[in-house]
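During the reporting period, our protein records have gained a structure token line. One record among many is quoted in full directly below:
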Amino acid sequence: MRPLGLISLLLFCLVSFPARSEALREGWQPVDGMQIFYREGGDPHAPTVVFLHGNPLSSIMYVQVMETLANTQHLHVIAMDYPSFGYSDAPDHHAYAYTFDHVAQTVDDFLKARGITRFSLYMQDYGVPVGFRLMALHPTAITAVMVQNGVIHLDGFPSAQDPEGELRQHWDHRNPAVDKRRADYVRSLGYPTFEHGSDEDHAGPDALMQMVAAVQRPGVIDARNDLWYDYGTNVKHYPEWQSLLSRLNVPVLVLWGNQDKFFTTPGAYAYKRTVPNAEVHILNSTHFATLDAPDTVASLVGHFLEAKIGAERIPD
């Protein structure tokens, strides 16, 4: 058989091997004297979706969903790691106040540094109190709100419903025993092995490895304990945030992994009480649905954004 010419060979490759999807871009952004790690994809001039991660993970929890959205829709997607999480710097808790107010300010400063002034929000777990602070700061900047397994109602937060329970008491009067228990747990973590195979949230070994590495850096458990103690301020904000969400008049999507034992499904339905026309989907998934069921999440988010903010689908 006669050897293929150069042009024929190129055509053969193009037909036989589809172009590889564009991966996310990664980098560090200087913010307030820190280096903040971020992942970004899509056209920066397209509508922006800001992904705010939960605890104890980082932007790694959104990689598959962000890549799918960036490659199938005309969207700009971006996620950062909060200070002490993921690959971002972890300043000592005496130098950086680990409160939700301060973390939200750092996220706001990061977005300003990246030139992002108008955006949709996708928030999970800790991302919800961070995101609602951003919404309170810049209500006119928000184009859509998406929540996944994160609460602004006590309905979906059974361990915090009892004012006399351990959580609420810790938030009112910091309990050193709670801090010690959390620190002991972190020190007990090791390199992910078969023993970690239960992984009930289906986060996967890569996310677990990064979580372990990040939290075992010097001083990080002190920072995380400070932030957990400050979580009590979020509960006090719930009525204010419910009112804010009802006034914003933006599309609302709620996705919820029904296997989450910490933030339970009543928390999803509670958003309908605040925004009656909110779109709610209960998924057969875990607390980290973006890792456990990324295709389902990306599909639901893509269709929602296409219908609500006109994010155009990229032709196949």
Notes: The beta strands are 25-31, 34-42, 48-52, 76-80, 119-124, 142-148, 252-257, 279-283. Residues 11 and 299 are 32 Å apart (CA to CA). The first helix runs from residue 6 to 16.
